[in-house]
Amino acid sequence: MYNFEYKKAGSVDEAAGIVGADDEAKLLAGGMTYIPTLKQRLAAPTTVVDIGGIGGLDGIAVDGNGVTIGAMARHAAVAASTDVAAAIPALADLASHIGDPQVRNRGTLGGSVANNDPAADYPAALVGLGATVQTNKRTIAADEFFTGLFETALGQDEVVTSVSFPRAGKAAYMKFPNPASRYAIVGVFAAQAADGVRVAVTGAGPCVFRVGEMEAALAANWSADSVANIKVSADGMNEDIHASAEYRAHLVTVMAKRAVAKAG
Amino acid sequence: MTVSVSLTVNGEAVSADVESRTLLVQMLRENLGLTGTHVGCDTSQCGACVVHVNGDSVKACTLLAVQAEGADIKTIEGVADGDTLHPMQQAFHENHGLQCGFCTPGMIMSALDLVKNNPAPSEKEIREWLEGNLCRCTGYHNIVKSIDAGAAAMRG
Question: Has residue A131 been placed in a domain?
Answer without folding.
Answer: no
